[in-house]
Amino acid sequence: MATVATPGLGGKTEAHDPHESYLAEKGLKSWLFTLDHKRIGIMYLIGVLAAFLLGGILALLVRLELFTAGRTIMTAEQYNKVFSMHGIVMVFLFIIPAVPGALGNIFLPIQLGTKDVAFPRLNLTSFYVWLLGAVFGLYTMIHGGVDTGWTFYTPYSSKFTNTSVIPMLTAAFILGFSSILTGVNFIATVHTMRAPGMSWKRLPLFIWALYATSIIQVLATPVLAITLFLLIFERAFGLGIFDPSMGGDPVLFQHFFWFYSHPAVYIMIVPGMGVISEIICTFSRRAPFGYFFIAMSSLGLALLGFLVWGHHMFVAGMSEYSTMVFSALTFLVGIPSGVKVFNWVTTLYKGSISLKSPMLYALGFIFLFTIGGLTGLFLAMLAVDVHLHDTYFVVAHFHYVMVGGTVIAFVGGLHYWWPKFTGKMYNEGMARVAFALVFIGFNVTFLSQFVLGSRGMPRRYYDYLPEFQSLHQVSTIGSWILGLGFLVMLVMFVQSLQQGKDAPRNPWGSAALEWQTPTPIPFHNFVDQPVITRGPYDYHLATEAELDEGYAPGERPADADD
Amino acid sequence: MFQQPLLDANEPASSTLQLPVAMSTGADAIDWLYYFIYWFSVVFTVGITAATLYFVWKYRRRKGVSAAPTQENTALELSWTVPPVLLIVWMFHVSYSAYIRNAVAADNALEIRVRGARWNWSYQYPDGTPESGDALYLPVNKPVKMVMSSSDVLHDYFVPAFRLKKDVVPGMYSQLAFTPNRLGEAQVFCAEYCGAGAGPTAGGHFSMLSKIKIVTEAEYEAHLKKIKDIPAELKDKENGTALWGEQLYKGKGCTTCHSVDGSAATGPTFKGVWGRTETLTTGEQVKVDENYVRESILRPQAKIVKTFENGNMPPFVFTEKQVDAIIAYLKTTK
Ligand code: HEM
Ligand SMILES: [Cu+2]
Ligand SMILES: [Cu+2]
Prior knowledge:
The complex is a heterodimer of chains A (562) and B (334). By secondary structure, chain A is mainly alpha-helical. In chain A, 64% of the residues lie in helices and 1% in strands. Chain A has helices at residues 28-32, 37-65, 76-112, 120-142, 156-160, 165-192, 205-237, 250-284, 291-304, 320-348, 357-380, 382-388, 392-422, 428-454, 469-499, 544-547, and strands at 4-7, 13-16. In chain A, helix 3 runs parallel beside helix 6 and helix 3 packs across helix 8 (250-284). Chain B folds into three domains: 27-57 and 75-101, no CATH class; 110-228, Sandwich (Immunoglobulin-like); 232-330, Orthogonal Bundle (Cytochrome Bc1 Complex, Chain D, domain 2). Helix content of chain B is 32%, strand content 18%. The interface between A and B is large, with 93 and 86 residues. The complex binds protoporphyrin IX containing FE and copper (II) ion (2 copies).
């Protein structure tokens, strides 16, 4: 049997049987020093899921405190720390690395038909940099946390709070580098490592999305790094750039911060949109309607995203002209978002639609993202935003796009690719129950917050007027349903690892490349170097053998797709 | 269609399911826009969802039926790209116009100074009379311009009934312009996160509330006259001035940083403050007397008590009589 030599760490040479699963080698060392993108992706997956669990517990605490007016379970100071840590963990540790770091790392090279990413060592480095950032974050939490919100606005963060701001800024600073390294790596991989025949026009939409995201990561994250660095100096040495008593400008910090953080919302959502495109095509057995428009709208969002940061500052005291320009540009962002939604729905038309759990998440995404995007239009309307800014309406808006969008897409992608990278099937019935709980719980939690916000309830409030209590209680009850949904999902996945049936090669009967290689994935992704002769969604060109699920004789479950 | 005529101010302000009571001339235009985009969103969401569900049902997977290959259709793509562009151009236009109308104050506007300090609002009427943070009185149907500043961190003056808010920034003045058109009370919130103090009574961002009382011109004048002086019910009391001082101590938010029972807080306790000798950050020793208290209130940064360097007491605007009352009160907190 042929063996392929790959350089390992320290110039060692390892030999691999081309059929051998990437999970075959055992032992902690084989994981910690791996250069295999799939194993790095799995480590990222474990990391981001741990962060999600932590952030989720903090979220449930925030909601529990708000169940009654006045003190429920904690003091105002504790509350401020808990909501700040929730935001920081969710944004910097979970949602930014979730789809690219975990799902992207595992599937980008496979979808491109190649053995690995362009720079495997850089890839491992990016994971360890992430881990270092996470350690700093945890250190900060043990050290009492911060109470600045995830936005770190000056001069509160620089001069007034006495919480551990500097270690937390350092954590975010370090995490930024991890994000940049992944971005550089993906760009290089997409440009140089595509399999023979994998032309740009045949790139899967998930790859287009990751590519657009990587461009934003590489261009925008350095701005965040500089901003955080300045703030560290301001706080530690009284630099004074953001301090009015020294001739500085506190509003400048907001410009710097949102110059990164608005593009960052596209770092969060665009990969999720890529996942959704993949799922919808597979489960309706049809090429996406408007492939070119969907791909270009990812790039369009990436570029437009750099021009609209000012919409977070409509009431911060900018000139009327700046607000006018930012409002106009913000409206434009709605267009590529709308285009994608129309294209997904049209893809369903005349398809052959199967409602397996990944597809349920994809359809859920369309609904939730539509609401998230449309409420973005409320906020883009200057006169209306002045009323809604910094109320619960904004909280609901960004949770609809970040949770209803990105998290739902991430979880959908996890259900979709799970059999391929773990080699195990999961309990579909339980997966559907979990979906139902998550979907209902999410809407109960956040629809009520739109009304709270438009009726005037400001955000980041520990206590509230009695008139807001009933809606807050609805929202808190929703958070319990949502939490229960994720718990069921966790049990379902753990069960799958322990006692799941072995997954066949192509359980969904997809035409995409990653489903053509054996399950679990061989060490070098493919047994032979694939040569691409059709696009990933060309169901009408795919052969019977390619679409065959690959169940062993007699193994085919009754509910398998036809 | 948007500019609201002067209404009968006595007619009670109305609210809807999603928006609170509207009490200013600009509010109705904003509500119209809000409900326009709301109904637009409802129609859009229902349409997308209905189409999705219909397709999912109609094209559900069936044995022997395979999906039809996808055809590109540029005309369709353009048809859902171009009309939305036109729509948003229009939406941008109307929302910007409504915004800019609210941004400019009338020439004859009543100018109110607003100060934000953790975690209280304070006001000053056009003639310089200070008002406590609890409530600002404004005459109905008169244009108002607020000139706002902060003595510590960012705050934001948010009046849902006027559909208005604006950040209040240290080192800079920001403005709000509006015309209240209903009699009644409008709730004020701080809408920019500003932290919280230690302890259950210390307050924080969530308690940085205030009210605007919209009254008739006559009531407004009467109120102005009243607050310049000691409250009538205390006037004839023997220790009336000290009692007024106590009211000010409680009403102006001194309680968040100063105790009278000796317990520790952000600032020195007032228990036994009168005549106490304080060591300043400069090392200098001073005795607490009339001049020292006066300066501590009006220009707190002039002399700073050692170990309280980080407390950042904000400057307060008090009339001479009010300072006198505080002094009288501090003489009693033994
Ligand atoms: C359809 C396109 C979108 C439009 C027109 C839009 C518009 C806006 C506007 C105008 C604001 C500022 C509201 C305010 O603070 O007063 C805002 C806030 C926000 N948006 Fe969006 N948005 C869109 C999509 C997204 C997406 C895709 C994400 C993330 C995945 C996102 C995440 C956020 C976040 C995190 C905030 C608030 C940040 C904070 O203050 O903490 N938005 N959006
Ligand atoms: Cu933004
Ligand atoms: Cu405040």
